Amino acid sequence: MKVLVFLEHDIICRHFVMSGALQPLVEQADVRFIFPNDGGKRVKLDPAQLPLGAPFEKVAVDAKRQQTWRWLLYVDQLKYRAGEHEAAIRKFRWKLLGWKSAALLTLAGLPLGGMVFRRIVDKRLSAQPPRALADLLDRERPDVVLHPSVLDSVFLNDLVVECRQRAIPLVVAMNSWDNPSTKRAMVGAPDWLLVWGPQTRDHAVRFIRMDRDRVVPFGVAQFDVYRDRPRIDRAQFCADHGLDPSRRVILFAGSNAQTDELAALQALDRAVSDGRLGNVSFVYRPHPWGGGGRYGARLARAKFDHIVVDRNMRAYLEAIGAGNKHMSLPDYRDTHDILCSIDGVISPMSTILLEAALHAKPVVAYTPAGADGSEQLANSLPMLHFADFLKLPEIGHASTTDDLIQVTAQMADPAEGVKRGREFQRAAGHFVTPFERAWRDRLVDFLRDDVLAGRGSGMLPRAAE
User: Fold this and answer.
1) Cβ–Cβ contacts within 10 Å for residue 397, how many?
2) Which of its termini does the chain have fewer beta carbons within 10 Å around, N or C?
3) What is residue 43's three-state secondary structure?
4) What pLDDT, in 10s, does the model give residues 327-386?
5) If we measure between CA atoms, which residue out of 304, 200, 313 comes closest to residue 254?
């Protein structure tokens, strides 16, 4: 089985390569990795230093052609459709594009404007075919193409077209929670899409317009590590962080939503000091590329009585304090060690809330408004991946610091916390389908037994209209 694996972002490398998720595939198939040759805009890591275990090469990317594909996506997303999610997407695109570009692309979605726009797009795409990609596929002649992706990829649309023309099965594996509903920069559809669970399957059918039987709930590649035993126990974790293991330990995990995380931490610290939270200590872990929230540099200088910073993220926070806001790629084993050692999680809507569920830990979703919140968070909350989650009765939810202290006290209660954690773990199956076997092991079987064994049979998913 010959497989070309396309990787186009550092985050994808972290989740699928550095996690070991593709190792069994490399061991059992003839694999070649493909990276974009774009001057390091998307992949800043050196492929030669990654644990690939197989050859790699870089393929040129035509920026003008990619922009044309994006026009098609933006026109589709800017069309009026009823619903809070759709309104939030339109608002996001208007802010991102600016009013002039957004207005022109909105006009391009109207019947008359659409005819002219489509001619322009067809002409641009025909004038600049993806020759480097086409030559690669013709030279390598793979049995299957695998593309782990945030669904906002420089390769994706051209892979859909070029693989379809050559009858090469294209399998895309989603990277993160919101990909099918907010980042699906696809004008067509792959032959197969591997999603996290039933929620993202529904989103792929609705927004990518794929046939349901070609969207496969497959779990999460980067969460395979959570099946292993942690490297340290709670006593060692607490010793490493200077914490009393007899106290309830709550993780405050930052997000990329640019809320005022310092304000929330200060409120929690005061609540412990004045007795409202009692026997509780906190560990703060900044989001790997969230920068400590809004004005996160302040956190590098902040002093707390009952809060410590995750030791594996201290260097990152110090760099933020020095003005070096960069992306961090922490080891998922560190996250696993933390989640196995703490008693609950608070986060302003980071994916770690779902990761807590896999560890049967209770959570509080913190969605501050006003001065402590952010426009980014406010616009994201109506989006379906978050809206579905916030409806769960098994989670705590707070939108003010007073509410946050109250629901944290409930979560910190030993009996109540354990009960909520178990209930949350069961409910989370809607978001992440559980399996007895690891993602990495099931992938090889899926490509061989489902994709290649059925090659040429059955209907392929229709392209988005």
Assistant:
1) 17
2) C
3) coil
4) 888 899 999 999 999 999 999 999 999 999 999 999 999 999 999 999 889 888 888 899
5) 313
Helix (H) or strand (E) segment spanning residue 410:
helix 401-412
Count H helices and E strands in the chain, helices first: 20, 13
Strands across the sheet containing 307-309: 307-309, 280-285, 248-253, 344-347, 363-366, 396-398
Q: Are 224 and 19 in contact (CB under 8 A)?
A: yes
Q: What is the mean pLDDT of the chain?
A: 91
152, 181 Cβ separation under 8 angstroms: no
d(CA 288, CA 298): 17
Contact, 208 vs 189, CB < 8 A?
yes
pLDDT, one tens digit per residue, over 89-145 is 889 889 888 989 999 889 888 887 888 888 888 888 888 899 999 999 999 999 999
Q: Which of 263, 293, 307, 203 is nearest to 404 (CA)?
A: 263
